[in-house]
Design a protein that fits this description.
alpha/beta, flat, five-stranded mixed β-sheet
Length: 245
């Protein structure tokens, strides 16, 4: 039985893979050495959603309503969601999230059988919604999603083999198209702004329910969540001119 040798393009494809595996195994040897200071390491790979549509507010309202209605401490209480008082003179100056999320949460609670009142009741509880905007000013390099470089390298390698051997070089675009279809809509940029949204149910000085969620946001959407923290344009000083001394 004769074994056919591997073709030259296949050998060229596996060669960088073998080199990468060898480098990965050798990297473990560095932990045997010592260091004058702790070595910085990263966290395990995790994912965090980006909130950039009103439908995303509805998803959060559904999640919070389900959690509230599952809680034995609050599911049978009369719940009141007070309207936050704002000093803004124009409703379009910001704060859309607080207004929109309040109505969405009310709808989800009522649809799920919860008791929501327009006025606070003596034996009821109050739902509060707090939003904290976090702006990172020097977070450094953030690695791309897991498998990015492997996917890109694999696509380039397959495309190079196709261009070298196929009679129609345009077919070499197929691997890149498959890669684009696979990752399209799944990855987005990290960004420097996040929000922490906390929903609490309070009865006088007791917290009966508390849930916090963290999302990325676009920098231009800050006014939806914290209009008081949106940078304002500097005022232009005015000088009055008269003909008197």
């Amino acid at each position: 039985m004769r074994i056919r040798p591997m073709s030259s393009p296949t050998i060229q494809l596996f060669r960088p893979v073998c080199i990468g595996l060898a480098s990965l195994m050798l990297s473990g040897c560095f932990y045997a050495n010592t260091s004058q200071a702790p070595i910085a390491t990263t966290y395990p790979y995790t994912e965090q959603q980006r909130m950039q549509a009103a439908q995303h507010w509805e998803v959060l309202a559904q999640h919070e309503a389900a959690g509230i209605l599952r809680s034995e401490r609050v599911r049978f209480r009369d719940l009141h969601i007070p309207v936050q008082e704002h000093t803004l003179t124009n409703a379009y100056q910001g704060g859309e999230f607080e207004r929109g999320f309040r109505t969405l949460l009310t709808s989800e609670l009522v649809s799920g059988g919860g008791s929501v009142t327009t006025q606070p009741h003596p034996h009821g509880a109050t739902i509060s919604i707090d939003v904290e905007v976090v702006e990172h000013r020097d977070r450094g390099y953030v690695r791309p999603p897991f498998g990015t470089y492997t996917s890109l390298a694999g696509g380039v390698a397959v495309a190079s083999i196709a261009l070298s051997n196929w009679s129609q070089p345009a077919l070499g675009l197929i691997p890149a198209a498959i890669l684009a279809d696979t990752t399209n809509g799944s990855w987005t940029h990290v960004g420097n702004e996040e929000i922490i949204i906390t929903t609490q149910i309070v009865d006088e000085d007791r917290i009966l329910y508390s849930s916090s969620n963290i999302y990325y946001i676009n920098s231009g959407d800050r006014r939806h969540y914290a209009p008081h923290r949106v940078p304002q344009a500097p005022t232009i000083p005015s000088v009055s001119i008269t003909d008197t001394w």
